[in-house]
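Exercise 7. Predict the joint structure of the components listed below.
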Amino acid sequence: MAHGHKSDEKIVYVGDSRIRKTGGDKPVPPDYTSFPGKSEAFIPNFLLKEWMAGVVILVGFLVLTIAEPAPLGYPADPLNGSFIPMPDWYFLFIYQLLKYPYASEDYIVLGTIGIPGLAFGALLLAPFLDTGKERRFYRRPIASSMMIVSLVASIYLTWVSWHHYTGELEKNGVIPEHIERELKSEEQIAAGKGRFVYGKEEVVALVKADDPAFSIMKEAQCIACHGAELEGSNAPSLRGIGDTLSKEELVETITNGKADGAMPSFKDDLTAEQIDQIATWLSEQKAAAAEE
Amino acid sequence: MFKSMYNWIDERLDVTPMWRDIADHEVPEHVNPAHHFSAFVYCFGGLTFFITVIQILSGMFLTMYYVPDITNAYYSVDYLQHQVAFGVIVRGMHHWGASLVIVMMFLHTLRVFFTGSYKAPREMNWVVGMLIFFVMLGLGFTGYLLPWDNKAYFATKVGMEIAASVPWIGSYIKELLAGGTIVGAQTLTRFFAIHVFFLPGVLLTLLAAHFFMIRKQGISGPL
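Solution:
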């Protein structure tokens, strides 16, 4: 056995690497007795104080969590051409930077590698760039001012990006999907139909599918956007459209278009009579009628 | 009883010195908000770790329901948000916690910067801290795709295009991340693996190094 001459000890360590060599100039954690003032033990005294700060944050965090459920839009559809891409807020500064002419297109390398590389490289290597002994920020004007300028720039870029995004939503009349989804769910629950789950909704059947109006719609390429069976694709589903739009509104929509031309005007492609025929047929597309 | 259990273990493993290293050290007055209220700025590092622990725990519970494949990912998130008891809270904590951890880390970084705490002998700890920052951003980027809704999909697509614009190696980075030429099924499983295994592994290693260096060097002195 590896026990030495003191083998009456219960446990004898051999080659104990835990014994520290004292002396020498290895760094030893300071005990802060050299600082004036009242220091205290990390556990439990100080940790309890830190926990109080933690509790304040935790309560705010839980209130936010309960007040604002995590957003969820509609399932990813790679063919959706109209979706406005939006990264999480902490990437917006770089997202916005890449929209400027000197950081995109021919200069994209400057935008992706040049400016962020310089900024984050400087941040990463800050201790080796700012090597003076002085620690107070107002005695380090170069380092501090560079940090403040980058901060202001990042906040500005983030703000502009968000401003553009909300502007675009407004311009295109888009309600963000996670909000629309909640609204639809509320509506359906109020109507006693159960929660709305995209792609799992019950599809309303077509009423009078052999109506000649449907073939006019096929020829007029309505189905290119609204789906071959009007079940919706790039444009909304027209199944059960009679529940939400009246015949007059349908005539108006087909004749003059809607949503800034996303739904084009058909007044040159179809005769007024054809439009009337289609609108009449669509206004008969009601969920209640489809169940019969 | 606990005392004798502790002694039994201590006799065999000699844990007292380890406990001393972790817990039994003095915290100086200038970082203690009970003595100087303004010292709350020194809490941001601890709070970042606190939120990180919440992220790890909530994430562990999310993986009990989450399915990383393109037909089921969205519906599994929808299910855990609406059908699973407290699912909306757990997902909410993970979602908002991701933002909160960035905020806290950002404030912590600013505190260290403006108090000049990164100066000698703490340069290495600053570098490790910045690496933690980048890992956190990576976790944010990969986690954003996982619900597989349109917002997730198109943001990732834009991210891939940005990665592809890096000179020479851009297309390789893109293909490595996407697991192919498009953002699709491979991308989702790959991002899931990166988000759940690779980056947390790196993160924990870096955190261990960060804390080890703090203990070894102590908190920087008062200004």
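Discussion. The CA atoms of residues 185 and 191 of chain A lie 10 Å apart.
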